[in-house]
Amino acid sequence: MKKNSWMILLFLLGFSILVYPHIAQWINDYLQKEQVHQFRTELEEKSLEEIEQLMEKAQQCNEKIYYDHNGFRDPFGDNEEKLHQFQECLGIHDETMFGAIEIPKLKLVVPIYLGATDDILSKGIGQVEGSSIPIGGEGTHTVLAGHRGMGTKEMFRNIDELNEGDFFYIHTMNESLTYQVYKQQIIYPDETDSLEIEEKQDLATLLTCHPYRHNYQRLLIHGERAN
């Protein structure tokens, strides 16, 4: 009897270890989707004028980025200085959610924050300092970074499954932007030419560490505006 009890206990322990990551990931995915839902609910309480003013500020910030572009800092390095510049430009804080990214192929919906510090990347997707604020428009190129191996948080773990022709969406405060994947690329952290802003182009690039569970390269998913 005692032997059977130990066998049952060991079975339950093994089963718990096996299913825990899946359950924890499901919970985290659910909580992130709830954050996005709460974000949209709070937007409904804001006046149209307030949202338009913030979008106008963001557009002005993007114009400054376009003309005073000083290059990127790797999102998995120290970006505190540039982050403060973005916050001052828009008058928001780093805990303020700015939008959401949706990738239907991966069934993924994750909050977007401005900046790509360790704190931001631990709770969502971060806009890389030196790239455009994700509101779209000609002469913009937003680069969105996310971790790939955060245990029970999916983030950008599976973006390598995105291929040419696939779509992802950036939901801002006043519209949804559709981007179509046109290229997948692997680079080293200092190879940033493909992340530059291009005149009259509306681009968005998803960025994460590569290979999975390592960080000596970067995986890029390049998208161009489709709507």
From TrEMBL:
Keyword field: Hydrolase
CDD domains, sorted: Sortase_C
Coiled-coil segments on the chain, per record: none
Active-site residues per Swiss-Prot or TrEMBL entry: H147 (proton donor/acceptor), C209 (acyl-thioester intermediate)
GO molecular function: hydrolase activity
Keyword Phosphoprotein: no
Classification via InterPro entries: Sortase, Sortase_C, Sortase_dom-sf
Protein name (record): LPXTG-site transpeptidase (Sortase) family protein
Lineage per the UniProt record: Bacteria, Bacillati, Bacillota, Bacilli, Bacillales
